[in-house]
Amino acid sequence: MLVVGAGLAGQRAALEAVHAGRRVAVLTKLHPLRSHSGAAQGGINAAMGPQDSVHDHVYDTVKGSDYLADQDAVEILCRQAGPTVIEMEHFGTVFNRASDGTLDRRAFGGASYNRTIFAADRTGLALLQALFEEITREERLRIYEEYFALRLVVRDGRVQGVVALNRKTGTVEGFSAPAVVMATGPFGRMYSRTTNSHASTGDGCALAYRAGALLKDLEMVQFHPTALPGSGILITEGARGEGGILKNARGERFMERYAPHAKDLASRDVVSRSIATEVAEGRGFPDGTCHLELMHLGREKVETKLQEIVDFCRSFAGVDPVTQPIPVYPAQHYMMGGISTNPRGEATIPGLYAAGEAACVSVHGANRLGANSLLETLVFGKIAGANAAEHASRASPAEVTAGEVEEATRELHSLWDRKEGESPAALRTALQTLMDRNVGIFRSPGPLNEALAEIRRLKERYQHCHVADPSTVYNINLTDALELGHLLDLAEVVVRAALDRTESRGAHVRLDFPKRDDVHWLKHTLARWTPQGPELSYLPVTITEYTPKERSY
Amino acid sequence: MVEVPLEIYRKSPQDAAPHYDRFQIEVEEHTPVLTVLLKVRDEIDPTLSLRYSCRQAICGSCAMRINGKSRLACRTPVGPEVRLRGRIRIDPMGNQPVLRDLVVDQKPFWDRYYAVKPYLIPDPAHPLPEGRESPMSPEQVEQFRETPRCISCASCYSACPAIASDPSFLGPMALAKLYRFAVDPRDGGYTQRLQAVQNQGLWLCLRCNLCVEACPKDVRPAERIVDLKWMANQELGAREPGSRHAIRFASNLTEGGLLNERRLAVDTLGLGGSLRQLPKAIAMMRKGRSLRRHPPIQGLNEVQAIYQALDRPEDLAHRERQKGADVKGPRPPLPPKATTQSAPPPSKGGSP
Ligand SMILES: Cc1cc2nc3c(=O)[nH]c(=O)nc-3n(C[C@H](O)[C@H](O)[C@H](O)COP(=O)(O)OP(=O)(O)OC[C@H]3O[C@@H](n4cnc5c(N)ncnc54)[C@H](O)[C@@H]3O)c2cc1C
Ligand code: SF4
Ligand code: SF4
Ligand code: FES
C-alpha cells in the first residue's frame, strides 16, 4: 500500500501498516525530517495528570470545537492519548521530565488541567525524529524521498494508486496500490500571513478532491493569536502557558475583559479575535500589533523553558524577549477542515484514507485546541494505517496503467511547455493577499463574494500561466505552479463554505450572523468537485454525551 | 534598507562548469538571505533552484555556504554579511555533489546518519516499562546536552574538513547523533556503539571546531566527539591507535614537555605498526626533523600544571555523569542487530 506524506501522520500510518504485515511505499515531496510537523513547538495533549481524566479531555475538546467535533471520534482521540505518548516515549522521544521522573506537563489554552506533554519548545521535532528513527528499522517500508504526488488514480469506483513526479530527475512514475493514505498536511499557504511552512500547500487534499473525494469543513480556518508580524513565525501558546501576558498600546491586560476567567489562556479563537478587535478599535501599537510580555518571568525561566522563542525573536524580529515585549498579530495557523473521513480514517472513495492535518475526522470541529493536533496525527495516523493495511490485504490488485501515467504526464506538460504567460509567483501573491484581506478572522458576505469572484478569475489566469524553468532536475518553478493550482482549488472551497455557513461558530465568525445557530448549522459542510466549482452538502455531527451549550472561558 | 549585491552559484546538470549570476536587491537589514533568494526567484529569475520549507530554522532544508560559511539561509540576516564583505556570495553546501544550483545530493550525509543506528537498541537487562514512561530524571534529560536540538541541516557536515580528507569519517552530525543514543538511559547499545565508532573514525576528527561554528542549533558536535572519545576510552580502554595516540600524546608531553615522535609512534601503533611507518620517519629525518628523545624542557612544571588543571575533579565528575554509569548499570553483551537501511526495490507500476 501507499502513503503520501511523511510528516507525523504519514509516518505513523506507514509504521502501523508495516506492523500489520504490508509492504509500504511512502511518497514525500520533502525528506521526512523536513516535514512541517517538526515546526510544532508547544506540545501534545494527554490526560495523564493525577486529577485529569479522559473524560475532561473529551469535554474540553468538544467545548473547544464549539460542538462541531464528532464526539465518538474525540473519545477515541482522548482515550488513545496516554498510550500514544507512552509509545512515542518508548520510541525514543526525549520529553521534559518532572523531578519525580515522570513526564512533565504544561498548561495550554482551553484545557482544564496541565495536560500538555512537551519537549522543550520543539515537541514536533522531537516526535518527528523519534518516529522517523523508529521506522528506519523497518525493511518493508520504503521511502520515496522528494517525489511529488501529481494525481490520485481512481477507476472502477476505487483507488488504483498515485502518479508522482521524481523531483530529482523529472520523470513521472506510477505507483499502484489498492489503498492510499493521504497525509500531506495543511494548506495554510493560501494566506500570506501564515505560520505554515512554504510546503504547506494542501496537495493531497486537492488531489483527493479532484479525484472525487469529499472535503469537510474547509471554512474552519484557525488563526493563531500570536505570530510575528511580517514573517508569520509563530510564538507558541506555551509562552502564555508559562505566564506570558498580552497587552495593548495603553498597557492594559485586555484579555481580562474578553475572558475574565481564562484570561490569556482562553481558547485560540477567542484570543485571536480579541487581539484583532483591540487593533481594529485603535488600541493596538502603530505597527498594527499587540504586545506579548515575558519580561516579568525572569531571564532564567524564559531562556530555559522557551529557548526556541528567544531564538526566533532575536533572529527573526530583532527583539529580545527577556528585556523587550514581542509584537504579535494573529496569522492563519491550522486547517480544521480536510479530506472527509470517518473515525476509521476512511475517506469517501473505497481504498482512500486520510490522516493528520490533511484529514477531517472531525476531532477539532470549528476550533482546534492547542496541542491536540500532534495527538491527532499519531492517533488517527495509526488507525488509518491499520485500516488501509487491512483493506489492502483484502482488495484485488490495483493498477495504475501506462495510459494513466501518460495522461498525467501530458497534463503536466500542458502546463510546463507553455511558451509565455504570467508567472505563477504573481498569481500566488494575488491569492494570498486576497485571502488575508477578505477571508480573515472576521467574515462578511461582501468581501467573501468578492473573494470568490476573484479566485475564479485567478483560476482562469492560472490556465495561462508560464513555467519559465525548462529543467527536469529539481524544478521548483514547476512544483510551485502545481502547488498554486492546488491552493486555488482549495481556496475556492474555503470561501464557498464560509459564505454558505450563516452563523458564527468557533473560528468561523460572520459579522452578519454573530450567533451560533444549532438549529440550522449543527452539521458539517461537505464539498464535491464539479467543473463549475464546489457543490456543497451536509453531514450531521455525531453527538454522544455532550449537548451543545454556550461556550464561556 | 541595504543594497545587497548577490553572487549566486549556478550549475545545471548539462553545464560543464558552474558560473555565478549577479543580482542587486534592496531589502531591510535584518532580512534573511532566504527571503532575498525567494525574491530573486519571484521577481527576477524563476529558474534558480534551492531547497527550503519552514523559513524558521527548524526543517533543516536551506543550508548553503554564505560568504564561504555553511549556514541556514533562513536565519542569516543580510545586513552583517554585506557590511563584512561588501557582497553576498552564495554557494551550495560542501562535501556533497551538486545536483543543480544550490541543491546538493545529500546521500553521503544521510548514509552516515543511518550508519550510527539512530534508534534505540533494546536493553534486555532494562526493558522499557510496560504501559508507562521510562523513568528519567530532569538531570538525565540534561545528559543529552544539546543533541536533541539537531535539525539535520548538514551545515556541520558541509563545513567539516575531515570528511574531505577521509571518507570513512562519520562526520559531526552522525557522531553527535551517536552521542545522543549513547547517553540515553533507555538504550542498550552503549558498548556496541562505542566499539563501532572507535574503529570507524571517531579519532579522525581534526578538532578544528568548524562544525561548532557552522551549527545553527548550538549542538556543538566537536564537543560531543571529545565526550565520545572519553567515553570510548573509559568503556573499552585505549585499545586502538586513535585513543592510544591521544593518551600517549598527553603522557609524552607531561613527561618531557616536548613530543618524542619515535616513542609516540611505538606506543600508538606497536612495534610492528611503527616499523611500517619507517619510510615516513626517514622522510621526516630527511627534511631535518629530529626523532631523538629531547631533554626535558624548561618550565616543564607549568606544562604539567596545565594538564593537571585540565583533569580537574569537577570535569571528571561531569564526564562520569555523561558516561551515564550511574544510570545504566552493567551491560550484558548484546546480540548483533541487523541494520535495516536496505529497502524493497522500487515498484514502478507494481503493487507496493
Ligand atoms: C508553527 C506551528 C506550530 C505548531 N505547534 C503545534 C503544537 O504545539 N501542538 C500541536 O498539537 N500541533 C501543533 N501544530 C500543528 C501540527 O504541527 C500539524 O497539524 C501537524 O504536524 C501536521 O502533521 P501532518 O503529518 O498532518 O502533516 P505535515 O507534517 O505537514 O506533513 C506533510 C507531509 O506531506 C508531504 N507532502 C505534501 N505534499 C506532497 C505531495 N504533493 N507529494 C508527496 N508528498 C507530499 C510532505 O513532504 C510532508 O512529509 C503546529 C503547527 C505550526 C504551523
Ligand atoms: S571539529 Fe572534527 S567534526 Fe568538527 S568540523 Fe572539525 S574535523 Fe569535522
Ligand atoms: S549538528 Fe547542527 S549543523 Fe549539524 S546537522 Fe545538526 S543542527 Fe545542523
Ligand atoms: S527553511 Fe527550514 S531551516 Fe531554513
Can you walk through the features of this model?
The complex is a heterodimer of chains A (553) and B (352). Chain A is of the alpha/beta class. Among the domains of chain A are: 106 residues, Flavocytochrome C3, Chain A, domain 1 (Alpha-Beta Complex), CATH 3.90.700; 109 residues, Methane Monooxygenase Hydroxylase, Chain G, domain 1 (Up-down Bundle). Chain A is 37% helix and 17% strand. Chain A has 16 helices and 22 strands. Chain B is of the alpha+beta class and 352 residues long. Chain B folds into three domains: 103 residues, Beta-grasp domain (Ubiquitin-like (UB roll), Roll), CATH 3.10.20; 106 residues, Alpha-helical ferredoxin (Fumarate Reductase Iron-sulfur Protein, Chain B, domain 2); 88 residues, no CATH class. In chain B, the strands form two sheets. Chain B has a five-stranded mixed sheet with strand order 2-1-5-3-4. Chain B has a two-stranded antiparallel ribbon with strand order 6-7. The longest helix of chain B has 16 residues. Chain B is globular and about 65 Å long. Chain B starts with a strand and ends in a 24-residue tail after the last helix. FE2/S2 (inorganic) cluster (FES) binds next to loops of chain B.
